[in-house]
Amino acid sequence: MTAVSPTPTAPARLLEELGRILGPTGVLTAARDMDPFCTDWRNLYHGRACAVLRPADTHELSAVVRLCAAHGVPMVPQGGNTSMVGGATPDDSGREIVICMSRMNRIRGIDPHEMTMEVEAGVPLKVAQDAAREAGMMLPLSISSEGSAQMGGILATNAGGNNTVRYGNARELLLGLEAVLPDGEVFHGLRRLRKDNTGYALRQLFVGSEGTLGFITRAIIQLQPAPKEVEVALCAVEDAQGALALFSAFRALDPALIQAFEYMSGTGMALVNELIAGASLPLEQPAPAYVLVELATPRPGTDLRAFMEGVLADAMEKGIVTDAVMAESETQRANLWKLREEHAEAQKRAGASVKNDVSVPVARVPELIARATQACMDLIPGIRPAPFGHLGDGNIHFNVVQPVDMPADAFLARSHDIMDAVADIVRDLDGSFSAEHGVGQLKPYMMAEWRGGAELATMRRIKEALDPHGLMNPGKIFPPAAPR
C-alpha cells in the first residue's frame, strides 16, 4: 500500500488498519483522488475528507465502520453523489471519512415468481432497471439521475421521481433491507414478505434517513410487470389550472393507466430548447405551460392510443388543451421525455438557480405556482421562475433562475430569502418544504419550525439511540441542538 501522511484526525495506525481491511484500491487519501467525492453535483458544497473508503462487501464495511467508530471518526455515506441538498458531501473540517458504496454493485438475484430483485447498495438505478427489463419485468422508480444514482442512496433519501403517481416512492417498493449500524453491527432484515407484523418496521427507519442512522448495504425491491403498451403525449395548456384539469380528466376515467404526469412552465421549456443540444419543441408555437403524460398497461390489446386520443380530443374541445402531440415511435417518446428530463441541466447552464423541492395537496398545485411565482418576482425583479415536476403527486420543483443582469453570487446570497418566501406559501397550503430531495445540509435550519416539538424530538431520540456519538453523516437533517 502506498504510504500516506497522517493527519490529526486520521492517524497512521488507523489508515494502516483500514488498508489491511480494504486493500490498496479501497483507501484514497490523495487530495486529487478525493476531490470528486468532496463536492456535490450542484457545486454548492466543497468539503474536505481525511480519507475516502471503498468497501467491496458488507463484511468489509462492517469492519471499517467498527474501526472508525472506535477512533471517533465521523463517517459520510455516499452513493452516486447526486444529492441536490449536499446530503452526501463532507464538511470542510477535514475530520470526516467518506465511505463510497460504488464497489458494492452486484445484483444478487431476480425472482420472477415473487417479482423481486435483491440489489447491493452501489448498483446504479439504470443498471437495476435494465436487469429487471431483461427479466421481463419493470423497476418502476424513475429519476433524472438514474444513470448515476445508486440504490442505497435512493433508499436512504426515499427518492420519488416520475412514476410516484402510480407506484409510490422508494419506500413503497422496499420489502427487505440489510444495513450496517453506526457501531459496525449488521442489521439483518432481508425479508421478501409482504406481511410481517412482528413489531416495529425497523427497515423503514433507514429509508429517508439520509445516512444518519447507518449504511444501507442490500435491499429487496418489489418489481412490476413490464408494460405491454405505452403512450406518451406532450400537451400545451394555458396554466397550471389547465394542467390540473387534464390530470383530473385522465384520472376520472382510469387512474391505473397514468404512469407519469409532469408539469413544465413555458420559461423552463424555453431554457431547454435554447440550451440543450437536440431538444426541439414539436408543437406549432410555444405555450405558457406544458404537460407530459405517460400512460402504460401490462395488458396487451388495450388500445391505449385510442384512450389517450379520446381524452385529449375532449380536453381540446373544452379548451383545456390548446395543442398536443403523441409519440409515434420509441425515439419520439425519448425525445418528448428529453424535454422534461433536461430541465435541471438547462437551468444549471442558464446561471445560478435556487431549487425549492416542495409538495402540496394535488388540488392546490395551481395556487402554489401562481402565488410563489408572484412572490419571487416581487422579491427580485427580473427573476426567472421555472417550476416543473410531478403534478400528479403534488411535488413541484419550484426552481428560479437568476435575472440575466444580476451576478450569480449576488443572486445566491438571496437563496434563503427565496426559499423562505416559497416555503411560507407552501406552509399556508399545508405542504412540505422537502418532497423528495431530502434535507441534507441545505435545509436543516427549517426543521425546527416545520417539524419542531414532539416530531423533531422523537427523531433526535432515534438518532441518539442508534448513533449516540453523532458519527453518522453529521450536519445533515438536524439543526444544532439548543443548549441544555
From TrEMBL:
InterPro entries, sorted: FAD-bd_oxidored_4_C, FAD-bd_PCMH, FAD-bd_PCMH-like_sf, FAD-bd_PCMH_sub1, FAD-bd_PCMH_sub2, FAD-linked_Oxase-like_C, FAD-oxidored/transferase_4, Oxid_FAD_bind_N
Coiled-coil region(s): none
Domain named FAD-binding PCMH-type: residues: 45-226
Superkingdom assignment: Bacteria
Presence of the UniProt keyword Thylakoid in the record: no
Keyword field: FAD, Flavoprotein
Any Gene Ontology biological process: respiratory electron transport chain
Molecular-function annotations in GO: catalytic activity; FAD binding
Cofactor(s) the protein needs: FAD
Family affiliation: Belongs to the FAD-binding oxidoreductase/transferase type 4 family.
Protein's recorded name: FAD linked oxidase domain protein
Species lineage: Bacteria, Pseudomonadati, Pseudomonadota, Alphaproteobacteria, Acetobacterales
